[in-house]
Structure formats: C-alpha cells, structure tokens
Amino acid sequence: MTDDILYEVRGPIAVLTINRPVQRNAINRAVREGLFELWQRFELSDQRVAILTGAGDKAFVRGWI
Q1: 33: domain range?
Q2: Which residues of 13-40 are buried (b: 16+ CB within 10 A; e: fewer)?
Q3: What global pTM score does this model have?
C-alpha cells in the first residue's frame, strides 16, 4: 500500500483519507486497491464507524483517472 490512502484510528472511529491533494484526490489503481484493503481492515477491526475523506481543501474526490 502507498501513502495515497491513510488509515487512522480515533477510538471507535476509523478515518480513511485519500491523500492526493495535488491531484485533487483523483482515484487511480493504487487508491482503489488501497481503499479495498483498508475497508477489509476496518471490517475486521473493533471500530464501529468509518469516515471517508479527502486531503486538502480543493476537492473531496475528483474522480477516476
């Protein structure tokens, strides 16, 4: 997995961040695979809530490239 997707645990909450602010968080193959992997990690964890967010202040997600 790359740094394009971050997984942070805050008590019962998991925060998944698409970390490509320069590309306005466009989803590429690495991001898609990272999201799949981290959703599996979340499902096996003790966290009860997952928040999906994007890094930066320009866009949540630009789309698939």
Answers
A1: 5-54
A2: ebebbbbbeebbbbbeeebeebbeebee
A3: 0.88
